[in-house]
Design brief:
This protein is globular. With 313 residues, the chain is an alpha/beta fold. The chain is built from 13 helices and 14 strands. An eight-stranded mixed beta sheet has the order 7-4-3-8-9-10-13-14, sandwiched between helices. It has two domains: 189 residues, 3-Layer(aba) Sandwich (Rossmann fold); 118 residues, N-(1-d-carboxylethyl)-l-norvaline Dehydrogenase, domain 2, CATH 1.10.1040.
């Protein structure tokens, strides 16, 4: 049960979560929220949807597995109005998602993108208003293992969120409470742009290095040449963030490399998994976005350019 304060009045309300995108990120967080008793409706499709409806959603981790029933539909109009909409679709589906969630958006709805990159939040804010959109950072490695099954590869699963517009402490507190009750490590940030860029820098390097080399992060960092690539991608994207006025400290680059050293040896970016599976890549929104913005700001980014040329041909 979450608590909202409106002026001096106090009212209790159970948050209703609508989750657009039932892949690794949306599926995992939807499952753990539902298992904890939250009101969750998942927007899914195809055989994945059919299996969820028939058998519930199964989550498999190194620590064990569980299956939880939850509401699921292919039609956002059937989901009804939601208090919180978590968007977890691939970046190329952002514009479609902006329109798709419209039937789920009510007067008090908050939209949180858990997508990669830094382009999604402005798209939702342009349609629904900056005060209706929170920035979100999902720190997790998970994929669809089979229809109706989410395979979580990382030992961690965290969400960092924060307002794009005016401060909304009551909604933020209710969200933090709901995530915590579900066992999700969560943080409310008062500088979500810095958090978004910190993840962007890391993900550009992780995706670029693991996809172009074909190696998991442990092998990348163990090889001097591959490690140099990873570190160069971090430095280039951090330099871009400075040019754009994002308040990240100089030591951010070293912190990101240290964080990568603590990842599971076999971890790969989702883009590397997509490359292996022959799926479409988010390249244009990761290293591709770095190259585009660097050109606009007159910053050389040779290693990100190399990644784009290697994967985009």
């Amino acid at each position: 049960m979450s608590v909202f304060l409106e002026g001096a009045a106090m009212s209790e309300k159970t948050l209703r979560f609508g989750i657009l995108g039932a892949g690794g990120v949306g599926g995992y967080f939807g499952a753990v929220l539902a298992r904890a008793g939250a009101d969750v409706v998942l927007i899914a499709r195809g055989e994945h949807l059919a299996k969820i409806r028939a058998d519930g959603l199964r989550v498999e981790t190194a620590q064990g597995a569980f299956t939880t029933p939850l509401a699921a539909t292919a039609n956002p109009a059937e989901a009804g109005l939601c208090d919180i909409i978590l968007v977890a679709v691939k970046l190329w589906d952002t514009e479609t998602a902006v329109d798709a969630i419209a039937p789920m958006v009510g007067p008090e709805t908050t939209i949180i993108s858990l997508q990669n990159g830094i382009d999604a939040e402005p798209a939702f804010a342009a349609r629904y208003g900056e005060d209706r959109v929170f920035g979100g950072v999902a720190q997790i490695s998970a994929t669809i293992g089979a229809p109706g099954v989410i395979a979580k590869h990382s030992g961690f699963a965290r969400i960092v969120f924060g307002e794009l517009g005016r401060a909304q402490p009551d909604r933020a507190a209710a969200l933090l409470d709901a995530f915590t009750q579900a066992g999700i490590e969560a943080k409310h940030s008062t500088d979500i742009q810095a958090e978004l860029w910190r993840k962007f820098i890391f993900l550009v390097a992780l995706s670029g290095a693991t996809a172009t080399t074909g190696k998991p992060i442990g092998e990348v960092l163990a090889d001097p040449d591959d490690r140099a690539l990873f570190e160069a991608l971090v430095r280039e994207t951090h330099a871009l963030s400075q040019a754009k006025g994002i308040g990240l400290a100089p030591e951010t680059t070293a912190q990101i490399v240290t964080f990568a050293e603590g990842l599971p040896h076999a971890m790969r970016a989702s883009m590397a998994h997509d490359l292996i599976a022959g799926n479409r890549l988010e390249l244009d929104w990761l290293s591709g976005a770095v190259v585009r913005m660097a050109h606009e700001n007159g910053i050389p980014v040779p290693e990100n350019t190399r990644v784009v040329e290697a994967l985009g041909g």
